[in-house]
Amino acid sequence: MKGKIIKNSDNINTKIREILESLISKQIFDAVFVPVRVPTGESFTYLLIKDKNILKDCIPLPPIMSVQGARAFKDLTRLGKLKYKILCVMRPCEIRAMIELSKLRQVTLEDVSFLSLDCPGVYQTADYIIEPEKYDKSFSSLLEKWEPEGLRPNCRVCNHFSNQEINSDLHIGFYDQSLILVPLTKKGEEIFTSLGFESTDDLADWENRKNELLRRREEIRNKTFTELHNQTNGMEGLENFFKGCINCHNCMRVCPICYCRQCFFESTDQLRRESEDYLIRTEKKGGIRFPVDRMLFHLGRMTHMSLSCVGCGVCEDGCPMDIPVGQIFNFIGDEVQKMFEYLPGRDKDEPIPVLTYKEDELHEYEDAQETK
Amino acid sequence: MSRIGLFLCECGPNIAEAIDLDKIAEFINKENKVAGIERHRLLCSEEGKKFLAESIKQNQFDHIVIAACSPKQHESTFMEVLSQAGLNPYLLQLVNIREQCAWMTPDKGLATKKALRLIRAAINRVRFHSKLHEKEIEANPDVVVIGAGMTGIETALSLAQQGRTVYLIDKDKLGGMLKNLKRLFPGMLDPQRLLQEKIAEFNNQTQIKVFEDSQVKEILGFFGNFIVTIINKEKEISLKAGSIVLGIGAQEFVPEGMDQFGYGLKNVYTALQFEKEGLTKIPDESKALAIIHCVGREKLGYCSKFCCVNSMKLAHLIKEKRPDIKVIQFYQELCLPGKEYDKFYRETREKGIEFIRFDKIGVGKNGNQLELKYGSGDGTEKHLNVDIVILATGLIPNPETKDFAQMLNIAVDDYGFFKEEHIKLGPVSTLTDGIFIAGTCQGPKDIKESILQAKAASGRILSALIPGRKLPIEAKASEISDSLCMGCGICVQVCAYGAVSIDERKHISVVNEVLCRGCGNCAASCPSGAASHRHFTNQQLYYEAREILR
After folding, report:
1. CB contact at 8 A, A152 and A317
2. Which residues in chain A have Cβ-Cβ distances shorter than 8 Å to B422?
3. Contact B493 A356 (CB under 8 A)
4. Domain 4Fe-4S ferredoxin-type: where (chain B) (predicted)?
């Protein structure tokens, strides 16, 4: 693979900022959608930026994911496509969630271009807000060392941390004090050329390191998933796993994929029953836990979105009870996606299996003798 | 609190002997959820229906559970009784304790237990039934017939004779496959004369409007109200109709690449090619001609039914023209159904046509002649030199078949032909109401059978689409809540009837209740519960399932 290697002794954010500024100056884009540090300093937010001067404050690769980019983007095209061109600077899992949302008609990608970044992972938000300076410091060395310690658990097992199977236009990788620019689509090629770059540099070193990292990640991933499997086996294992859940539904609220106006499991009309019903439900188990349907919520949410789960782990970050909910969703998502040979966010034209209705599949329910 | 009436039908001895109805009544009474329990010997009898109606009125029941037979048998019967008794017919739940309990479970105790569960489930479900109203829509009685072969022509004539306006559309000229034929079996009729006669009939029918050389561009709408846009001489024409008949025919299978049959060699024809061209070009010196049956049958996977008799027709045609030529039919199995074809076979043999059964066969070149190498089951290979070989191939779907299937949301079968609604009970209807299929586009068949289907489709339309009469639409349909829907479109994708679409302005899904058949796919797949089924609500299903699992 060929691309452009830019030597950089500066902070990577500074260098990416320069690229973004140049794209706005050259009017390649009308605005940029990119994370910015909040004024108090301990968190980040996505900003739609038109003004070059404000672009100076952006942090394209923040050390935490206080909000999932796709979740942040949703409102932008809720009422229709963009009427201007923007560049979204996001982590791979955020772009993958964007692609899924576009298939579910929750975002419109027309006039949206993606700039993806090599992602070493993020710290857990709760840790970060206590000591932002400490984590800011260690994050800059993370890009050199790529050590999994202290990261969000899903980041430690992430196997799509770079340009692997990604529906992005332009990718920036980091290696050896350099930025690696790789155009991935025709659109990306145009952006790349407009910046005055040419794909002349050999990227073997970056790629070799990437593959080596991937190999290490896969090892941890398999081990973690096996542990999760054993831990959550059967209804009892699952009960145990979610034992601390307080039904706050935060995991759903921060999830980039969950898009329902009102969650089915919060709908009073659909799930609340007559008082007599709860007594009947005690018949088999002797008692019934309140608030009800706690496990049903998790299983239901899993059924609804596991095909599109990108394993970003934002749900786990949002859990006040420290339930490893992101890990189990990542693990189940992985299994379900393998079953359907589907990878969320790989290709915007690849339909989500739940969206494809194949009449042939119904034959198994028919009287074979009559129809054949 | 609703006043539920439970009716237990004995179905003569059918239920009474296999299930302890007294025990069921006793248990249900104790539960105190119904306002009354009635028992009857045969509820579907005239006397039984009267009893049901009177009991509903007397006891002022507002929801009804009937434990009897399969809903397939008597649900509509009992719904009618409810209507007569002044109750909305959808406030009924029928429990099938005959087929599912009495006839299935020999142990009376177990059968009773099972019946009790199902009855309790029905009682808990019926409480949540709401009144549904059957709406009606205005319908256009006109018909669009696509394909003007024999099937389309017959359909148009049958409909026009009853005063219907018919738009007959063909991509080519009138006549379809018939235009290529010299004779029709078994009576050796002249197809061109037949065609002229039929077209002459058109002149008496001002209601038939023919559009030749026209392409169908788009079909929108639903049963009773379709809009068909065609392109005729580069001009778009929009036709309005209540129903559509597809009679787009099929095409002959050409055994291209099947080298063993020598296709491509000089004097090797398919049956249709021979009838069109070969017959007039038989070389004078020709002495022998072979017709090989069942060419491509194994590859296609089906028997085309007409080709055996058609091969015999060709033999007659050859003999008429050149009595000196020896004609040999190579066959594997002869398909001669019905009262006409066996006779035709005997007549063919009487003309001196030879029939040889083969288990394998190959055609090659031998000088100026063609050489047949074949086995006839005794293990030896035999040789025969002939001058002409005709390959009797079957029919395959026209390439337009899949385009129309997609456009109209109807199914095709494993071979690519249009798929009928039901192989036995709905041979000319499709899964989309108001769309009918007839002739060879549904599968290979002879002209007689095509005409039968044309008549059947016309009959279905004449009885379902009556001028001035409105069409009832499914009351047990789906609905989508504006306030819950996020417009993700899952329901649009899973709807088999094309009944759900996105309202782009509001960014939500909407159900076209005319197209909706109430299958519930949308309700089952909607993650937020925005899509629901009026007669299978979450409440109804939950309480029903709870009692069954209790």
Report:
1. yes
2. 370
3. yes
4. 476-505, 507-536
Using CA atoms, how far residue A310 sits from A70, A242, A323, A346, in Å, is 11, 21, 18, 10
CATH number at residue B14: 3.40.50
pLDDT digits (tens, 9 = 90+) for B43-90: 999 999 999 999 999 999 999 999 999 998 999 999 999 999 999 999
Question: What is the total count of domains within chain A?
Answer: 2
Which pLDDT score is estimated for A369? Answer: 46
| Residue showing tokens 């022998």 | B288
User: Which domain range does residue A85 map to?
Assistant: 2-210
Q: Is the pLDDT of residue B353 over 60?
A: yes
- Would the pTM of this model clear 0.90, i.e. be above it? no
Does the beta carbon of A235 lie under 8 angstroms from any beta carbon of chain B?
no
Set of chain B residues whose Cβ sits within 8 Å of the Cβ of A305: 527
Within a domain: residue B548?
no
Torsion angle of alpha carbons A355, A358, A361, A362, nearest 10°?
A: 100
- Helix ranges (H only) for A123-256 are 125-128, 132-145, 153-156, 186-194, 204-231, 234-241, 250-254
Length of chain B: 550
Residue B316 structural domain: 254-393
Same domain, B289 and B409: no
Nearest by CB to B423, from A106, A261, A370: name it.
A370
- The answer to the question of residue A215 being in a domain is no
Same domain? For A197 and A307 the reply is: no
Residue A143 confidence (pLDDT): 85
Q: Are residues A73 and A114 in the same domain?
A: yes
* pLDDT of res. A372: 38
Residue B18, classed as helix, strand or coil, is coil
Same domain, B491 and B514: yes
pLDDT band (50, 70, 90) for residue A364: low
Give me the mean pLDDT over the B371-390 stretch. Answer: 94
Does A359 contact B411 at a Cβ distance shorter than 8 Å?
A: yes
Contact A264/B483, CB-based, under 8 Å?
no
Nearest Cβ partner for A270 among B486, B529, B543: B529
| Out of A355, A359, A371, closest to residue B490 by CB | A355
**Domain closes at, from B132, B154, B187:** B132
* A11 and A108 assigned to the same domain: yes
CA-nearest of B19, B141, B17, B7 to B61 is: B7
Q: Is the peptide bond before A92 cis (omega within 30 degrees of 0)?
A: no
β-strand partners of B144: B167, B244
Q: Is residue B542 part of a domain?
A: no
